[in-house]
Amino acid sequence: MEKRETIGPSEPVTGKRFLISRLSALGDAVCCLPVAVALKATFPDCHTVWLADPRFKAVVECCPSVDEVVEYRPSLGPLPKWEPFDVAMDLQGLAKSAWPVFRSKAKLKLAYHWQREGSALAAQRVLPDPSSLHVVDQYLDVARAAGAESETAQFNLHPPSAAIESIKNRLGGAERLMILNPGAGWITKRWPPERFAALADAAATLGATPVLIGGKADADVQAAEEVSCQCSQKPLSLVGQTNIKELVALIGMAKAHVGGDTGSTHIAAALGVPAIGLYGITNPIRSCPYGQIERCHYDERGLAAIPAEPVIRSLAQILDRP
User: Fold this and answer.
1) Distance (Å, rounded) from C-alpha 213 to C-alpha 224?
2) Facing residues of 279 across strands?
3) What is the predicted pLDDT for the residue at 189?
4) How far is CA 180 from CA 31, 177, 254, 284, 304, in A?
């Protein structure tokens, strides 16, 4: 394997305390987990502290490579009185994520290359390696600039046993789960409900149990209801009924996951669950389920231009595997 281009500081960093600032959102936090994993693998006795939005910190808590997860709400107030950091990293590139890095008094301050809202004043930008096409690899380049050694991303994502038991109790013995997430933060990232319904019916015919997931927001509930009412047989729905750790547990039990560019899709990829991605306005080369570009369906005209049939074929290929 060819040696990657050297990026960032010319002198290796041997520090053992790292601050990671990545506040939101769910999928983005998951995509940043390999940074902590790479740091811990390179410096086994290091201490990693992650500043997280209270809404999404639970997914970071599922990664044992992060030693300390701190809820952070942007403010001008004092930061916790930590021991000095060797390296602080802004992996979001916004004013709210750059501010604690700027104030951290770390010896070295590094940042993901896409810096906005004046965040470039807080930390040194790390340009991505030419081979880093996926956003996960671009985040990893920041870890490499801090001295971490990593050729491929590892997520080290593990739901707690209590979350696994909670989900098992709610599934009622259902097996061969096929997770469907018809919701997304933007309506432009949502596949038409009648096609999700066709996919759910096909999954049931193939011997799988379709399970609808989503948040408690009205838009997510409505999206799931629109799918469910068009299915020949109503799928199991856990929409609005799982916390983040339970969501990780549920996806980890599945045979497949289907969704757009949203948090649960990236959770599936991090867990090694086959993830069928539906992409329109976002580039799947950059943001597909990591390592699963071959399972993505993309049409630059939008998700409405993606028919159900090729997605059903992708699902059948997954379900045919032992």
Assistant:
1) 8
2) 298
3) 75
4) 20, 10, 10, 19, 17
